[in-house]
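Sequence in, structure out. Go.
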Amino acid sequence: MSEHVAPLQLIGVTALALATVVWMVVLARVVRHTRRGATAGHPGHVLPGRSQRFRTGPPQEAVELTPAEQDAFAGLVRRLGGR
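Output:
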């Protein structure tokens, strides 16, 4: 042990190193578990605790344009595209 390092610092570094190793082992097991589940016929399997995103806005709509509206829109795009 170095004479310039306090015992409490050595304990702290050792605890951080141990916590890092434990975290890496747990993360590897979770990833391995989720990959095994995804290949076993569960394509929608996500990591536990991870929420799925839901659309909160209004539903999307689609409207067919008449040929005159399509021409007007194309002209608008050409005019704005020149800027």
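Check: Helices lie at 7-39, 67-81. The mean pLDDT is 81.
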